[in-house]
Amino acid sequence: MIQLSERLMAMEESATIAMSRKSRELKVQGKDVISLSLGEPDFNTPQFIKDAATKAMDDNFTKYMPVPGYDDLRESISKKFKRDNNLHYDTDQIVVSTGAKQSIANVVLTLINPGDEVIIPAPYWVSYIEIVKVAGGVPVMVNAGIEKDFKITGKELEEAITTRTKLVIFSTPCNPTGSVYSKEELQDLANSIKKHPSLIVLCDEIYEHINFESKHESLAQFEEVYEQVVTVNGVSKAWAMTGWRLGYIGAPKKIAGACTKVQGQFTSGTSSITQKAAIAAMEADPVSIKRHDLSF
Ligand SMILES: Cc1ncc(COP(=O)(O)O)c(C=O)c1O
Fold first, then answer.
1. Same domain, residue pair 14 and 126
2. Of 131, 120, 212, 126, which Cα lies nearest the Cα of 173?
3. Is the peptide bond before 252 cis (omega within 30 degrees of 0)?
4. CA of 2 to the centre of ligand 1 (A)
5. What is the model's pTM?
6. Using 50, 70 and 90 to split pLDDT, how confident is the model at 246?
7. Do 180 and 265 sit in the same domain of this protein?
8. Pair 23, 64 in one domain
9. Tens-place pLDDT, residues 38-75
10. Are residues 26 and 132 in the same domain?
């Protein structure tokens, strides 16, 4: 009899993936379904990115690649961070992964020991919880209700911190609420975070360009918490590249090195062709995203 591990048994299936499977099944049955499950942009990957992928294949970028990503890709991500987010990350602080989902899993596996608490403002993206549980961590939800525009304050964060708290995970713009933290609200969080120097905060910015509210701001811009923040982003949402599988982090060197080590044992680097195509996305003027972004 096959006995699955306790780790696996404690894990829930991804709710978004289950919903999207259900909607596909219903569509096959001829039902008219509007699927609000996976965060799938409603435009296609721009042609210039596809062209870069074709060129990568023609140039034979089809072999094993460096685990944290090609140097030229990490260089272009470093420039993107500076250009769009005013963040300085050297290339050895950047790790490219098979989607932002893997980036988040790498960080959690790298930092969390069994019993460590991870603070997650609720509502949250469902995978955060399951990734934390796989690592043996204890998710601690802090209510960010509608009356607070689905955001938490520095004071609320501090009230949730205990001696076991290791990590905070949140997204801005937020999936599922769409709320966007302003610079002042992030400064308020930073004021609290800096009082707890061993606390690490994962700021998930994958929805940077799906923003209906205000200017996108990054938590890592505040010098006093820069060494405590891991910035997560990727190409899935901004460039409609969900199927290409590429996410990345900008992080303190120690965390970037640790994530490279984890990834080196699980998946190695993400697709060589995707990486070369992502350089074209990184180097494109972000204003051009709007041209493809008919739904925003
Ligand atoms: C908040 C959030 N973070 C990360 C991801 C993962 O994105 P990727 O496709 O790069 O793995 C998603 C995908 O839906 C998401 O909603």
1. no
2. 212
3. no
4. 32
5. 0.94
6. very high
7. yes
8. no
9. 888 888 999 999 999 999 999 999 999 999 999 999 99
10. no
Distance CA 259, CA 64 (A): 18
Distance in Å, CA 294 to ligand 1 centroid: 20
Q: How far is the CA of 52 from the centre of ligand 1 (A)?
A: 23
CA distances from 239 to 214, 226, 244, 247, 286 (A): 20, 27, 10, 12, 10
**Which residues, judged by CB distance below 6 Å to any ligand atom, belong to the binding site of ligand 1?**
39, 99-101, 125, 171, 175, 204, 206, 234, 236, 242, 247
Name the domain count of the chain.
Answer: 2
- The answer to whether residues 102 and 217 belong to one domain is yes
Q: Does residue 186 share a domain with residue 52?
A: yes
**288 and 164, same structural domain?**
yes
> What residue numbers bound the domain in which 13 lies?
1-38
* Size of the chain, expressed as the number of residues it contains: 296
Residues 54 and 32 in one domain: no
Model confidence pLDDT, tens digit, residues 211-227: 888 899 999 999 999 99
